[in-house]
């Protein structure tokens, strides 16, 4: 079996999530990868160095259309003949393209898998992670996106794959790329941030809540809050993480002075790593935290900043 | 509130509330007056969303309303097969023998264990088939009265009013539902009923209403422990002799168990927490084995009226009537109110049909119909039992009720009365004995917030607080200084919280958690808390099985 | 100009789904169902386009069991003019739904199809893209802004780390993301009026679509519970663990 992985990259640098997708693909068979976009040549070089990749398919495009889903989906459908599975890391780009490819191939896609049981059977979250479904596909080809956090990424160096160039097909037309605008906001969006620093009742007041900002700056983190902090007016409710607020699942979630009521946990329990700082050793947040510090957060906060500066 | 003119719709009859009484009334109306237009509104997001009961139901009223209920698939699937009344001591329990003789009203032969929410969903589908227009997600917020003093319908609440009281972007004004007759079927302590009662002085000359708070959990338990049809009730431990209440446990459906605890809201000890009583009784050896290895599925709470016929107000007024538990038709010793609620709705429907035909202002024959029915005979025969518990204490009350049943057969020549409202009997913190409750173990017993989580309660966040404290300074001088914030204990949903207890105690109201049980409206010592309807569709979303 | 808006009936977003004890799926009996929130946003966008005078007719479609008519009534209460229920008891998945929609598009010939980006039950995020693929029409997923002018639609769409703008020739497919708009309430007067709006009922067989699912559910389980980790003594140890052990910073 040979598997094709669509790789996401940023200016030629392969995203770590895509290396997780390669790790997942390796469980299914030999791995070829596809790179597109304006910096495809640079990306192809990086991809060729990833151990386990046999062949890199580099899409040459001069029209700018490689930013669009339509031609890329058509290309993937054309290439599908040689593969049993087509994979990509779950991302806005992959989710834009892969289902369209699946339709062209008359296949039902399998999004966001977190485990591979066999070549046909996969585990994926449903109901925003409230349940895990094990599904078996009856399709001859599988089109899959992969939850990166569930697969340990392969290394970025050490491989030596061949590079093959293909041209981007015209696609069905009708779609024109106008512009891409990357958000300039210094803080990432709460729901898509890689790191979230949240404050709760323990922050005591609006003034103190701002003390989280220097920590968030150092980690490139978004700032969140528990309902108690929102109800008491420390921050506005767009910051609220929880059952009635935003549901987040960052790689790192730092809960400062949050006791961890179930309503809050419902909004962040899928985070990969949870850190809790609270002066109450009995706080329920410690039951879900991977790392906890019992103590006064106003003492610990500056120490954390200092430690991050030191080694960073 | 709204400057924008409200839209209006005319009906023959508007029914406020989609519980057993409102739905039975709607069905009966279309049966006896097929041309009458009937509109029913329900504040829950769907029919059943706010329905909470044990429930063992007696099919008597259903039999009269929809004789083909079996063929039509009414969800009465677990007949009662076995029942026990347990007197609990801290470690042991005693089963009351010859239950059918000592407590004949407890005889559940022919009754069924049901999810009352599912039953209401089924009733609603029957009502819709009969042409009733049902609109869940809309709360009756205002009683409409014309110049002659006749109730002419209700208005639903505005949607999209912000926390600050100002209309937001998605503001939608309420709607006037005008009707020749309006039936209030709001359940125990209805907020519009409260207005109508004051408007027409409906409680003149009757005993104060007295209430209980029922807190319920739905469990799924291991198959080997499940005994479908088993009905258990308890009294005694952990309540003291001055406090009325006890637990129930019903096995039904697919390995489901309905467990709950009712506390009489005439309890005197301000430190008492009905929620924690409910939790700790699960640890008693009589109940604990059933919970081991099970999982809790749902949680909720609701007040119920316990006053009996002595406390039933005048039932009609110009343009409408009170039906179901908002009037107080619960049979307390039987612990059943569904059949009486339905019957009252049916009788009101018949009275309204008659009034419609004869163009009368008040559906006055409703009261006579009630007095001539089995409903009245039934409630009259048990009228002294609950007051006896209030008068003689838990043990004395039990003794009295056995005597009443065996010797007097409910025909005592005297009537015991309820003298005080539940809010008047609370004793100050300084003379109340503190109660120490066990910490939740997270397996069988739980805390309030994780419980509320299982009620699927939600309210749009950006809206005015629907629990109106009339006078905050009164909270400090009465609730805090004298009673040490009883609301933080009786509220089963952690709505009331005392902030900055040590330095500057003040009341924080987490209105979003409210499960609409109405206990605060009842028990607040100074009657300083007014429960009003929040934006429609807010509140709990009890799932099927509740 | 005509718009088609597919809507799905799902477990209400306020309800915590419960996995059935036998692992066969998630309990839906007696559970409150509502319109998928992203579909509400799609309906709202269509209604706003109609209020701007760009759109003349909005057709809501739902594919599922008979009770999906409640969802269609909600769509009509929000402003859809009429609706089509494609009734089936078979579990729907994006591929079969896209095929049904393709058949309806060929019949109704809408200029724009606006869908929610994903349903909150199966979290597939695929139907819009698949419909566009089957029709060979342009697509703009995850829309946060939609403008229609001169036979084309310009869509700002959410991508990782920012936004992208594309222009599509009509007819086109758009999927709605969270920030596109804030849907209105279905007001009581409008719910009453919606009872009188037309609803057509057909079956997938009428459209010649085979609904047989390609994915079969082997089992459904609750996610493993998180376990308590370790308590640390200092900020220094925490930073070192995050760096070297968890590798998240």
What does this structure look like?
The complex is a heterotrimer of chains A (312), B (546) and C (249). Chain A is built from nine helices and 18 strands. Chain A is an alpha/beta fold. Chain A folds into two domains: 2-167, HUPs (Rossmann fold); 195-311, TPP-binding domain (Rossmann fold), CATH 3.40.50.1220. In chain A, strands 7-11-6-1-4-5-12 form a seven-stranded parallel sheet, sandwiched between helices. Chain A has a five-stranded parallel sheet with strand order 15-14-16-17-18. A three-stranded antiparallel sheet of chain A has the order 8-9-10, with no helix packed on it. The longest helix of chain A has 15 residues, at 297-311. With 546 residues, chain B is α+β, with helices and mostly antiparallel strands. Chain B is built from 15 helices and 24 strands. In chain B, helix 8 (338-358) packs antiparallel against helix 9. Chain C has 249 residues and is α/β, with parallel strands linked by helices. Chain C is 27% helix and 31% strand. Chain C has helices spanning 37-51, 68-78, 94-108, 127-135, 188-194, 235-244; strands spanning 2-6, 9-11, 33-35, 57-64, 82-87, 112-116, 139-149, 152-159, 162-169, 172-176, 199-202, 215-221, 230-232. In chain C, the strands form two sheets. Chain C has a nine-stranded mixed sheet, sandwiched between helices. Chains in contact: A-B, A-C, B-C. Chains A and C meet through helix 3, helix 4, strand 7, strand 9 and strand 10 of A and helix 3, helix 4, strand 7, strand 8 and strand 9 of C. Chain C: Belongs to the ETF beta-subunit/FixA family. Chain C: Keywords: Electron transport, Transport. Chain C: Residues 23-211 form the Electron transfer flavoprotein alpha/beta-subunit N-terminal domain.
Q: CATH fold name of chain C, please? A: Rossmann fold
**Radius of gyration of chain A, taken over Cα atoms and rounded to an integer in Å:** 22 Å
Q: Please tell me what the overall shape of chain A is.
A: elongated
- CATH level-four homologous superfamily name of chain C: HUPs
**Mean pLDDT across residues of chain A:** 92
- In helices, the fraction of residues of chain C equals 25-40%
CATH class membership of chain C? Alpha Beta
Provide the low-confidence segments of chain C as ranges: none
Number of domains of chain A: 2
- CATH class categorisation of the largest domain in chain A: Alpha Beta
The major pleated sheet of chain A works out as: 7 strands, parallel
Helical content band of chain A: 25-40%
The structural class of chain A is alpha/beta
* Spatial sequence of strands, sheet with the most strands of chain A: 7-11-6-1-4-5-12
Q: End-to-end span of chain A in angstroms?
A: 43 Å
Please count the beta strands of chain A (DSSP E, at least 2 residues each).
18
Cofactor (chain A): FAD
Function (chain A): The electron transfer flavoprotein serves as a specific electron acceptor for other dehydrogenases. It transfers the electrons to the main respiratory chain via ETF-ubiquinone oxidoreductase (ETF dehydrogenase).
Pfam family, one (chain A): ETF_alpha
Protein name (chain A): Electron transfer flavoprotein subunit alpha
